[in-house]
Amino acid sequence: MNYARPLARLVGEFEKLPGIGPKSAQRLAFYVLRMAPDEARQLAHAIVEGKEQIRHCAVCYNFTDQEVCEICRSDRRDRALLCVVEEPRDLMALERTNEFRGVYHVLGGVISPMEGIGPEALRLRELVQRVQDGSVKEVILATNPTVEGDTTAMYVARLIKPFEVKVSKIAFGLPVGGDLDYADQATLIQALEGRREV
Q1: What one-character DSSP code corresponds to residue 175?
Q2: Is 5-53 CATH 1.10.8.420?
Q3: 17-26 pLDDT, tens per residue?
Q4: What would the pLDDT profile of 46-62 be if each residue is shown by its tens digit?
Q5: What is the distance between the alpha carbons of residues 93 and 55, in angstroms, rounded to a whole number?
Q6: Could you tell me which of 155, 133, 20 has the C-alpha nearest to residue 86?
């Protein structure tokens, strides 16, 4: 398409976002152009402000605008229960359940030899330091059910086992409201292995 140069640049910037193809980028660009000037400025300001003010928590590496995030500062959290996740978005997903009352550790990714990401690229040293102090009694591994996620979980489990803490992994399986008939074999196996007594 022959866009005006500013529009082409806007479409091009949207295309850089994950999961946004050319048509979605075009749709977003046209939406922004239809916005009132004040709304467009607020969007641009929110992007710049987020980029400039959001950092990693000094304790768990969640996103925050403080030195230490709200979860790590809370005195209502069980510090003996530590949940290890890949990214801040995974932490947010667990927080939406309102069920987990422990604290978190964000690794900052997964081990992925195909992408050149080894254990040294993750926040494993910081995790070991947190477990070493003796206050953590259980580490829950909440990595995604992918080859990389499972590899990372196994690596972390082996790394922290010497500290004599309980290590568990969240169960995976069928989604609520799902049909057995539509589930793939790996999901059914995970559901069977993660079963619990009724």
Answers
A1: P
A2: yes
A3: 999 999 999 9
A4: 999 999 999 999 999 99
A5: 19
A6: 155
